[in-house]
Every structure is written in C-alpha cells, then in structure tokens.
Amino acid sequence: MLVVNRILVPHDFTPASARVLPHGLALAAKMKARFYVLHVTDRSDAPYPARDLPAVRETLQRTGAVSEEALRAVHIEGVSRSDGGVAETIHRFADEEEIDLIALGTRGRQGARRLLLGSVGETVIRRAKRPVLALRGKGVGAPPVPGMLDRILVPVDFSENAREAARVAAEWARVFDAQVDLLHVVTGSSASPTEPAPSVSDEEHVGPEKKARRALATMGRGLGALGVPVAVHVRTGAAASTIAAFAEAEETDAIVMSTRGRTGLERFLLGSVAEAVIRHVPCPVLTVRTYGRSIRALAD
User: Fold this and answer.
1) SS3 letters for 81-146?
2) Which domain holds residue 273?
C-alpha cells in the first residue's frame, strides 16, 4: 500500500510552480496527507519578494482542482526560508519535516545557468532521497485533470530500480483505480531481460523484442496479483523520445520511473533518461529510487 502522509510543493510564484499545486493538492486530498508549500528566497529573488503563502489556499479554491470539502480537510502549511541554496533548502526542509513526497514544476528561475547546472527542479530530482513528482512547467497540450488517473506508464529496463517503480505504480493504480502500462524500449544498447529460457535451442531464435515481451508478461502477472489491470508494450528506438511518444499517443495520465545514481557523474548520466522524459511530456512524472524514503509500505 502507499504511505503518503506529508507532501511538499516548493513554490516560487512562477507559472511552473503554480501549475503543479493542484496536482499536489489533489494527491494530498486523496491520501489525506498534510500539504506543505515552501518558498525559498535568495539574493536573486529581489524582483520576486516573498508572498503571503496562506493565500495559496484561496488560489487553489479558484482552480477547482478539488472540492471545497476536500480542500478544507487538507492541512496546508506555508513556509518561507532563506537559509541557503534553493535545492539544498528544499531537501533540508524535507528531511526536517519527514516529507514523503516532493511535487514540483521543472522550470525555475536560474536563467542561463540552467544550461550548465540544470534547473532547480532537475537538481532536486537528482539529489532527492524520496520520490519526486515532477510536472513540466510549459508544454504542448494540457496536463491531465489533477487527481484523475486512468493510465499510469512505467518504463522498464528490467533493473531492480525499474521493478521498484513498477511496484509503486501498481500501488498508485490501486488508489486511483487505474491501469498500469509496462513499456520496454529496445535500443542498440539494450540488455536482454533476465528471464529463464525455456530451452537453449528455442532461445537462440528469439529476438530482443520477444524476450522483452516475455519478461514484461511475467512482471505484469506479478503486478496483476495486486488487483490492478496491466498491459505490456515493447517499442524500438531511443529511450527518452520513445517513452515520450508513447505517453502522448496513449494519453498517459502519469509516468512512474526510476532514477539510479546517487552522486556525481554516475547520478548525472543514469538520470538523464528520466530528466529528458520530464522535459518532453505534459503529464506528471513520479521518480522513485531503491534507497532513501519510500512511499510503498513493505506489507499491507
């Protein structure tokens, strides 16, 4: 089962962060979680003075993302901090308040620095020790209606990280009564799925697409035991662009995918597919990892 008691939305009063507020609030209402809105100020914030964070509740009322009754049931706490870099302050606050999930827009106010250092959102995702729900600040088409999830996509590379993402997606699907789509993209560097072969002679004639479909079917049966509908898909091409194209074509409502690296160059390289997907899809992307804080309880 999912355990989400505290949700944090970093808010810088830009359209990107405003766009994610209704999604975070809808999830908080669904999970009966506390909802924190954090504004981090620094020297570059002179044109953007700290605002009245309690007014966020009135803003959310106007969006109509959730009913007024649900909105009244959500504990919304606004906090303003100015004690360090933006990403570092977000993580520090999340640790202090034992936040289960961070929800954020991916387009911050770092200007040209983004080309070298990445946006605040990308930095938060790379360094997070807990799941992050990211929503592209600007894109083609509208994001799904907050809280309305019918199809959840999980890109699968058959690593343990991807398997954990699939388990989280299945639990999320149980909450929202949604379908899980498992997608494997066969690329030139794709490793063969680790699944016992029926026989050596048969396996010699099986291509990577068929191997992947078999392995996905096995994974799908395991997730189906949780009571959620599962569909499996295999595509060929570049990983990030193929995932994004699938999500658009199939009208995906949310994507759950893993990030692997913890520090340094490893984290940057292994997180590149997730970051590229976030940049190119209009739907929310939940990034999970096998270390740090989890929103999936080990047992029901």
Assistant:
1) ECCCCHHHHHHHHHHHCCCCEEEEECCCCCHHHHHHHCCHHHHHHHHCCCCEEEECCCCCCCCCCC
2) 151-288
pLDDT in tens, 67-113: 677 667 677 777 777 667 888 889 999 999 999 999 988 764 444 33
Q: Do strands 132-135 and 285-288 pair parallel, antiparallel, or not at all (unpaired)? A: antiparallel
Shared domain check, 177 and 246: yes
Place of tokens 């669904």: 30
Based on the fold, state whether residues 256 and 175 are members of the same structural domain: yes
Note the pTM of the prediction, 2 decimals.
0.81
Compute the distance between CA of residue 75 and CA of residue 116 in angstroms, rounded to an integer: 38
Q: Is there a domain that residue 143 lies in?
A: no
Among the listed residues 93, 104, 110, the one whose alpha carbon sits nearest the alpha carbon of residue 131: 104
Query: How confident is the model over 115-128, as pLDDT tens digits?
Result: 333 467 778 888 88
Residues sharing a CB contact under 8 Å with residue 40, sequence separation 6 or more, in sequence order? 10, 12, 80, 81, 82, 86, 89, 90
